[in-house]
Design brief:
- This protein has twelve helices and ten strands.
- It is of the alpha/beta class.
- It folds into two domains: about 180 residues, Periplasmic binding protein-like II (D-Maltodextrin-Binding Protein, domain 2), CATH 3.40.190; about 100 residues, 3-Layer(aba) Sandwich (D-Maltodextrin-Binding Protein, domain 2).
- The strands form two sheets. It has a five-stranded mixed sheet. A five-stranded mixed sheet has the order 7-6-8-5-9, with helices on both faces.
- α5 links the parallel β6 and β7.
- The longest helix is centred in the C-terminal third of the chain and has 23 residues.
- The protein is globular, with a radius of gyration of 19 Å.
- The chain starts with 5 loop residues before the first strand and ends in an 18-residue tail after the last helix.
- It is found in: Periplasm.
- InterPro entries: Ca3427-like_PBP2.
- Belongs to the bacterial solute-binding protein SsuA/TauA family.
């Protein structure tokens, strides 16, 4: 008797980091695990996925460590961290408008207005980390601008969005718009933690069917990562054909990224404890954040 198939809705950001997920689909690895995966895209990023997990629109979300940790540290209990996806840090580019001659370096955005995709997103959290790193006490103002195009319009003072002075986004996703002259880079900052984790809704995790399906999903993603690691040319083709990157930029990114070998493993010290400590020092989280349960480890 054939094993029944379980459907999982997995939220993801439609960027280059998603490539192993789709290799796993195209190579039949999910089907082999009796899991059907539906991938709703979230171009606005991790903050939007946190909202979607709460609304039960998705079961699983793959996104930025700092945003997911920050959400739980502020009291969100509708999801838990269940896995790690990318081991390497994220390189956040700091950008402003191409013609903003008054902004020449990171020092020029101290206490200024920062465009963010959503409250609680990585683009919202990382400016606090930047301010801590720079020793600034001036408070940023934030404008929620939903998506990457609006962020670019904000710093250029064009379109219908409110004007801003800078925003932060992943460097290779941003590079195309440096090359076109639409925006300019004034700096960058690396995350001091592994950059991408996997989360699942608390409701999904409490069902035996959900827990079993998640194990199958993990096995398939591990195979997708292994396939990615041994098929870089195919990865470049996928990224440059299906996503908003040139082949040259895709190849450059491949030299910087390290996916984990086993997505089911979460190092609490580096993923949770270190991130919480840094976010506390940057005043993103308060002392009570140390009391929350961030991980679900009983799969």
């Amino acid at each position: 008797m054939s094993k029944s198939t379980t459907t999982i809705k997995v939220g993801y950001v439609p960027e280059h980091f998603s490539t192993p997920l789709f290799f796993a689909r195209d190579q039949g690895y999910y089907a082999k695990q009796s899991v059907e995966v539906v991938f709703p895209p979230f171009p606005s990023g991790t903050g939007h996925m946190i909202q979607a997990l709460k609304a039960k629109e998705i079961d699983v979300a793959i996104g930025l460590t700092e945003a997911f940790v920050s959400g739980i540290g502020k009291g969100a209990d509708h999801y838990k961290i269940v896995g790690t996806y990318v081991q390497s840090p994220l390189n956040w580019a700091i950008s402003t408008g191409a013609k903003r001659d008054e902004i020449k370096s990171v020092d020029d955005i101290k206490g200024k207005t920062i465009g963010i995709s959503r409250l609680g997103s990585g683009s919202n959290v990382m400016p606090f980390v930047l301010a801590k790193q720079q020793g600034w006490t001036d408070q940023f103002e934030f404008e929620i601008q939903d998506n990457f195009k609006n962020l670019r319009d904000g710093v250029n003072h064009t379109g219908s969005v409110k004007p801003t002075d800078a925003f932060m986004w992943e460097v290779f996703t941003t590079k195309k718009y440096y090359d076109s002259g639409e925006i300019k880079q004034i700096g960058n900052i690396y995350t001091p933690w592994p950059s991408w984790v996997i989360t699942a809704s608390s409701t999904f995790l409490t069902s035996s069917e959900g827990a079993a399906a998640l194990k199958g999903f993990f096995n398939a993603v591990n195979e997708g990562i292994a396939y990615f690691n041994s098929h870089h040319d195919e990865a470049v083709t996928h990224i440059s054909t299906n996503l908003d990157y040139s082949a040259e930029d895709a190849r450059a990114w491949l030299k910087t990224v390290q996916f984990v070998d086993n997505v089911a493993v979460v190092d609490k010290g580096t993923i949770v404890d270190k991130t919480v400590e840094i976010l506390q020092s940057a005043d993103v989280l308060d002392d009570s954040s140390a009391n929350y349960a961030y991980l679900h480890t009983t799969l």
